[in-house]
């Protein structure tokens, strides 16, 4: 897999895209593969105890951070690169009465705005694959975790062979696919940063399901608000073509989804 | 030298009770998983071992348990706990759920003699039909138990040939019952427009009358083998007459392995395109009453039907688009809703579970945070045996659900937009009724589809058809001795004889010698003996 030439451009493009109307329209608010069911599975594996401190890298609208705070009684630091995303997450969380327990920070996964050794655990859902410098991000995970602290990562994986051409474009990147790596690459990157993988699980159904959800959302928007989609610059047929390709790639085993739990050595 | 120990080829997951399919005594039963399929196995002291497939996908079977919600206690019970389940129906105070749907069978006569009929109905000289007084008593029993019942279904026999069927509907409408369903083969709807008009007059938005039309497919063979004659023109006529009169129709398809399983996708496609049809209900053929010879180990189950549908309409569904219904036992019934947009150049179909994470709302076991109460309540009404398209409760619940699709971030008022979709919503139900082979008392105890009997009992549908209550009620009502029906299973052929109604009975039926009917499902499991006799 080639390293993108203009990583800054792509990184900000990616974060902006997640905060963008068109992407919000297509992806919806709270969807990441596996939904809260998979989030709970990650949380279980992290063996959280009340009052521990957890970092959520690429926290998005904050659903995971709030779930961890409510179900595991931990404090959470959410970090996201999108400024408006952070603002929205903050206000939703305050409305839910969790403002004291969950804080959000505007920041970059490759340079987390948090001190060393502060976190008992860290989660990063469907975002690692979008970080252009994965080695730097992994090093940051290791830096903020205390020794023995665990990272729970769920992410898109790809087979060793090449992806279809159409999915390696910028649109594919935004959909979390183009810079995804084979599972073994993630394990190596984490190990090099001092994070030893304890367990991995395959959840390919989760990504197939998410593709179906994106597809469904688009179709329903086309039924109800076709003109709004056009205004936002969404070409429904083009996106449906992409979801079709992605679905086929999942069926062919080219794209998958994995959960991995690693511990700071 | 002793041989090496071997592992069993199955995982033992449940211990329960069932009945012997031949003599109907209550026996212990076990549920096992082999090759990702779920089987129920049991042993009768007299008739030996029996095994049947109960769910084709073990993972889905186990995953469905988290959709099991607490039952609701009905206002009244009709019987006492005496001998235990399934001998005390019903409902006895140990029943775990109220009745979402009450069925009143108005007759045993029918204008067809279908080779497949769980009610064992037909052109028969010795059946019965209920009187106006009996119908009133049955409705009153239902109202006393439920307060404001959601749905009553008139069935038979063929209810449209009962001379008082319109009066029965009026009796129901004079009571606080929200929806009336008429379960019919459609012959009278196709041939008697005045009758259709009379039904349409009674169909009001706040108190709808819905047609539940038997509709098994499009091949001539399907019709001949399931219904005994080619009814394709009749079905079309009935549907078109209903559309003209503004009556809402649910298509009810009996699906049998090797007969019409290839038509599942076409039935949905047809339903979506027909203006009268708002839902399809798929029922793997219940091997109670009259049916063609079958193998209990390869019968169709809910997960098989869902997989067939997904395979036959791959652009519209996956098997993940169906969710178990929490009000009954979740393995009994699965449902999905679709939003349908018909355009000149394409039909867009979107399963609602792809738009809202149903999991988050209907998971009663692993969820530790209470989801939004209004949305959960709406989804509970949709994922329920009492949901019928055209019913006000169902329409309101669809609106509430649509409201949850709101996307504040993008500034589209989706709820407003989706309100217009109410007319485009379409329901698909898959319901596997139990038979004397598959009966699992665990499921029976939480059944929410009930037969209301003329003597004022409310009996779970699958108990009524499998355990011996149907035969008991027919005998009481007709005064003619009725032997217990035995499934027409391949392995039982040597012990089967023909009943007068086309079903099968055991070759030598036991009787107490005084000509009295033996007790319903005598229990051979809890017979009051010490666990270890010394």
TrEMBL record, chain A:
The lineage of its organism: Bacteria, Bacillati, Actinomycetota, Actinomycetes, Pseudonocardiales. SUPFAM superfamilies: S-adenosyl-L-methionine-dependent methyltransferases. It comes from Longimycelium tulufanense. Keywords: Transferase. CDD domains: AdoMet_MTases. GO terms for molecular function: S-adenosylmethionine-dependent methyltransferase activity. Residues 55-150 form the Methyltransferase type domain. This is Methyltransferase type 11 domain-containing protein.
């Amino acid at each position: 897999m080639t390293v993108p030439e203009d990583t800054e451009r792509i990184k900000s493009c990616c974060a902006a895209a997640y905060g963008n109307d068109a992407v919000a329209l297509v992806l919806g608010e709270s969807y990441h593969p596996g939904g809260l069911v998979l989030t709970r599975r990650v949380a279980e594996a992290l063996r959280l105890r009340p009052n521990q401190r957890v970092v959520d890298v690429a926290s998005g609208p904050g659903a995971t951070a709030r779930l961890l705070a409510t179900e595991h009684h931990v404090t959470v630091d959410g970090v996201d690169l999108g400024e408006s995303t952070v603002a929205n997450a903050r206000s939703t969380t305050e409305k839910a009465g969790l403002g004291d327990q969950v804080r959000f920070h505007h920041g970059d996964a490759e340079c987390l705005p948090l001190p060393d050794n502060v976190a008992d655990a860290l989660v990063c859902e469907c975002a690692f694959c979008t970080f252009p410098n994965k080695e730097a991000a992994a090093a940051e995970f290791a830096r903020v975790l205390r020794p023995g602290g665990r990272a729970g990562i769920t992410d898109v994986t790809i087979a060793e062979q090449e992806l279809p051409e159409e999915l390696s474009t910028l649109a594919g990147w935004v959909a979390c696919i183009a810079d995804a790596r084979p599972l073994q690459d993630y394990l190596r990157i984490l190990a090099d940063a001092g994070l030893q993988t304890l367990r991995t699980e395959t959840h390919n159904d989760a990504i197939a399901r998410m593709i179906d959800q994106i597809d469904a959302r688009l179709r329903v928007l086309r039924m109800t608000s076709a003109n709004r989609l056009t205004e936002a610059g969404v070409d429904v047929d083009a996106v449906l073509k992409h979801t079709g390709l992605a679905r086929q790639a999942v069926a062919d085993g080219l794209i998958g989804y994995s959960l991995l739990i690693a511990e700071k050595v | 030298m002793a041989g090496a120990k071997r592992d069993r080829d199955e995982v033992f997951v449940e211990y329960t009770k069932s009945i012997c399919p031949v003599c109907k005594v209550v026996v212990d039963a076990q549920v096992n998983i082999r090759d990702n399929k779920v089987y129920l196995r049991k042993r009768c002291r007299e008739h030996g071992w029996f095994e049947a497939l109960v769910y084709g996908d073990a993972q889905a079977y186990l995953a469905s348990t988290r959709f099991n919600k607490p039952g609701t206690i009905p206002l009244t019970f009709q019987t006492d706990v005496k001998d235990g389940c399934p001998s005390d129906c019903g409902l006895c105070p140990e029943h775990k759920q109220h009745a979402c749907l009450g069925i009143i069978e108005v007759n045993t006569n029918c204008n067809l003699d279908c080779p497949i009929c769980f009610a064992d109905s037909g052109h028969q000289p010795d059946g019965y039909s209920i009187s106006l007084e009996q119908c009133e008593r049955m409705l009153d029993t239902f109202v006393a138990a439920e307060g404001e019942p959601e749905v009553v279904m008139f069935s038979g026999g063929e209810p449209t040939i009962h001379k008082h069927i319109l009066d029965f509907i009026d009796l129901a409408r004079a009571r606080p019952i929200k929806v009336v369903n008429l379960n019919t083969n459609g012959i009278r709807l196709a041939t008697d427009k005045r009758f259709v008009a009379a039904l349409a007059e009674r169909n009001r938005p706040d108190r709808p009358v819905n047609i539940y039309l038997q509709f098994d497919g499009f091949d001539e063979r399907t019709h001949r083998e399931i219904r005994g004659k080619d009814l394709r023109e009749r079905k079309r006529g009935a549907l078109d007459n209903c559309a003209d009169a503004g009556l809402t129709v649910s298509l009810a398809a009996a699906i049998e392995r090797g007969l019409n399983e290839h038509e599942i996708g076409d039935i949905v496609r047809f339903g979506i395109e027909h203006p009268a049809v708002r839902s399809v209900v798929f029922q793997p053929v219940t091997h109670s009453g009259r049916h063609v010879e079958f193998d209990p180990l390869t019968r169709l189950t809910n997960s098989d039907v869902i997989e067939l549908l997904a395979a036959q309409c791959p652009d519209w569904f996956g098997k993940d688009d169906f969710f178990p219904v929490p009000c009954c036992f979740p393995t009994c019934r699965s449902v999905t809703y679709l939003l349908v947009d018909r355009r000149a150049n394409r039909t867009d179909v979107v399963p609602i579970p792809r738009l809202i994470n149903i999991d988050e709302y209907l998971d009663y076991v692993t969820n530790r945070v209470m989801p939004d109460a209004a949305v959960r309540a709406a989804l509970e009404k949709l994922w329920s045996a009492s949901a019928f398209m055209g019913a006000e409760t169902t329409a309101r619940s669809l609106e509430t659900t649509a409201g949850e699709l709101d996307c504040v971030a993008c500034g589209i008022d989706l709820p407003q937009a989706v309100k217009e979709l109410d007319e485009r919503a379409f329901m698909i139900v898959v319901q596997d009724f139990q038979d004397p082979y598959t009966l699992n008392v665990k499921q029976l105890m939480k059944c929410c589809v009930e037969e209301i009997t003329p003597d004022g009992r409310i009996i779970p549908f699958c108990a009524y058809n499998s355990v011996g209550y149907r035969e008991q009620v027919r005998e009481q009502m007709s005064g003619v001795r009725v032997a217990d029906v035995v499934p027409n299973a391949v392995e039982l052929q040597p012990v089967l004889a023909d009943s007068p109604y086309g079903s099968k009975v055991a070759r030598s039926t036991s009787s107490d010698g005084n000509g009295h009917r033996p007790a319903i499902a005598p229990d051979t499991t809890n017979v009051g003996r010490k666990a270890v006799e010394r």
